[in-house]
Every structure is written in structure tokens, then in C-alpha cells.
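Problem 3 from the worked examples.
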Amino acid sequence: MCIQNTETHKGRKMAFIIDGKKISSEIKDELKEKVAEYKKNGIEITLAVIQVGNDPASTVYVGNKKKACEYIGIRSLSYELEENISERELLDLIEELNGRKDVNGILVQLPLPKHIDEDLVIKTIAPEKDVDGFHPQSVGALSIGQEGFVSCTPAGIIQLLKRSNIEIEGKECVVIGRSNIVGKPISLLMLRENGTVTICHSRTKDLKEVTKRADILIVAIGKPKFVTREYVKEGAVVIDVGIHRNAENKLCGDVDFDDVEPIVSAITPVPGGVGPMTIAMLMYNCVSSVELKK
């Protein structure tokens, strides 16, 4: 796995903690330099962010995206729409932004109010401006190995592994969860990196037996502290995509970190693991939109 960690605690070797904050900062700094170069050549990158309603979690995410844009030097346009806006009005706005030459990326913050068809909204965003990587054309391009935007959380997981010198090629990779946003795309990306991939889900039989084979275990199941050490092979790398608040209002993941950490070689914490990477990779997609345009 190429992980070197000699730290010990009470006589045992500690797992390498994969630091998403640090890695996401490195990526943002690299992008900042790139954007400065583009500006010298008269190219400005613009991201349009649309939020419908004022869901508190969405407001936090949108705020973080704006901060990241500001830091990197990406211009952001903000559209804060009323909860009761009609679907047609939202689609008209997206179509207007599709046609604007000065807009590189369009992001519609999910979830949307129930009266708006999320699927239709995603399909209305022009694929060349789909920096979230959710458009069927982006997903199709990923599945056949063509150029296109990759959804941000899976792309971030690949960066976490690569920048932590964790080898994917030839490794047994198990993904728990088959969502369109994480489970399916991360499986395709691990395959692209020459991993041997198994996808588990709610109908998988003998789940523990399957997950215990994993050299790299990616957990995106949406259940707090679901994965304990019985699911994990000793020395495995564990990537926790989940984020929840426990009874004490503290953030936790899909993995029981305290139970699993003593037996693995590397693990992502929650918070500070996969989370920060999602916004870093959104920024990466915005910057790479210039190359994709060409």
C-alpha cells in the first residue's frame, strides 16, 4: 500500500490518518496558480450557483463554495431563489446561463423543493457546464472512459488515495453503496485505476464476508457508524463518505472510527476526510472547464 507510518500509541502502530483538509488545501493552491495564469491571458472563469429556498445545510454548502471561488480567483454568480419558484422559471434561468459565453460552470444546489423535478433540472444544464458531473452525458463519458466532468466526491476520493501514496492498481476494492452520486461513479473510477471492484448494497448477502476481502473499503451507505471492525480486513484502507450528527450533536461517519482505526493501515476521519475534497474537486472541474471547452 506504500503507506509509511511509524507512530505508535501504547505499543501499537497507529493508522495513517488521511488528511482531507490538507490535501484539499494543496489542490486549491495549485488551482489558484492556474487561475492566475489564465487571468494573465485574459481568461476569467465564472461559476453560477443557484440555490432554491433556504435550507440551512444548503446555505452552508453554498457559502463554502463561494469562499473557495474567492480564494482561488474564480468569479461566482449567486442566484438565491424563493422556495416557491416554479419549475419553468428555474429551467428558464438555467437555459439563460447555458447560453452565456462568460459562464463556465452551472451548479444547482440539491436537494430541490418537491415540486421541482431534480432529474429534469440536471438534464437541462449543458453538459459542458455540468461542473457537478451529474448530467447523463457526463456519467456516460465516465463509464466508457471519455473526457468529461467527474462528480466531485468520487473524484476527491481518488485524489485522497493518490496523494497519500496508496496504490489502487491490482487491489481488491469494495464499495458499500450504489448511489448515482458516489457508489457507482467511484466504482468506475477505481476500475479506471485498475482496481478489482465489488459493489455492495442492501441486497448483498454475507456483507461482512465481502467487505473483509477489501484492501480498500469505501463506505457510502448513509448509516451512522454502521461499519465496525467485523467488516474490515486488518491492514485495509478505509474511506468513509458518510456524514451524520450523533446524539451528542457531534459529526460522525458511516464507519465507527474508534473501533476500526486500531486495525487498519489508513483511514479518513469525519469531519476532515472526504468532505473538504468535494468542494476542492468542484473548483478543479470549474478550472478544467476551460480545457474541455477547447
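Problem 4, a separate protein:
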Amino acid sequence: MKFLLDFFPIALFFVIYKTMGLYMAIYAMIGATFLQMMIARYRTGKFENIHLITFGLLVVLGGVTLVLRDPEFLMWKVSVLYVIFAFALVLSMWIGKKTLLQSMLGKELELPANVWHQLSWLWGLGFTGIAIVNVYYVNLALGAREALFTATELDSKIELTGLDCVNTTMEQLCIVAQQTEESWVNFKLFGTMGLTFILIIITIVFIKKYIKEDKK
């Protein structure tokens, strides 16, 4: 349930992007992230740091994107967010008595200290990998976008989803720009969710023997 709640804003962003374009999708994601924060606050009695950080970055970078009509700021948010998460996970091994993962999951799982450290490295490196893959898609999308607007007299603030490429002077560049932006949006939902799910599966397999030993 929590996994679905965490990805709800991204899923809504994906749906609105496909139907109403990028900028309306940003408004929808900001609203959904705020709702997500409030639901977590209602269920646990406190705000979760991960939600506060995500919402803060989204409001700042999403807001700049909306004001300047430049998707670059929002696109980089994914990498910035996951690098922050990775840094926090790894750094927590040397700050405080518990790692960040142990503080979050210690009530449900009893694991040796060295295992919590290993899991922190696993998720830290995994989140770094997600950030790097996002960089790849962002560079593709922004490169194609720049090529299109440099070669044409189109207003760079226009939404790519609203362009009819057949009626532009550079049809192929337009199609590539649309496709690469859409690829980034697809990665934002399916890529981040899929890679996170893989990390969860690896974690379950890794700690399975410790859970069994605990039950004996």
C-alpha cells in the first residue's frame, strides 16, 4: 500500500502528461504530492522527511519550470532527489546510532548492524544508478529539444505535446523531440518504479536468511 502511495504522484503526472501536456502534469503532481504528505501525516501523526524533501524540490524546480516554461529544471529533479537519498543513506552509517534504513524499518525487521550497513550501500548505489539513468534520458530529451528550437523559429516555451510535427519545417526533429521527452516521462514512472521494485526484490532475497534464523 505504501509503495503505491509513494508512486501515486508520478503515476498521476504520467496520466495528465499523456492527456493534457507537461505543464498541467506538473500542477497535478504538486497537488498529488501535497495530498500524499497529508495522508502520511494523518496515518503516522507526523510528516515524513522523504515527502518533505520531495515536495520542497518539486515546488522549487517544478515552479521554475512553470514560470520559465523550460522542462529542464523538472527533469533534473529526479536525479537531484535520488542523489540526496543515496547520500543520506550512506552518510547515516557514520552519523547516529542507527542507519537511516534501520530507523525507518527497525520496528518491522531485526537485523544485525552489518546487514543494515550492507543494505544502506545497496540502496545508496541503487538510487545513484537511477539518478544516472535519468541523466541519460534528460540529456537525450534536452538535446533533441534544443536541436528543434535552434533549427526552427518555433517558440521554445511551447509544449512539445501540442505540436503537430507534420506542419513544422523540421518534421523529423520535431518527432525526435517529442519521442525523447515522452521517453523521459515513461522512465520517470516505469523506470523508477521498476528499478525500485528490483531493489526491493534483492533486499528481500538478501535478508530472507536472517528472518528465518530469527524465527528459529
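Solution to problem 4. Helices lie at 2-20, 22-44, 49-68, 72-91, 100-105, 113-151, 171-215. The chain has a mean pLDDT of 91.
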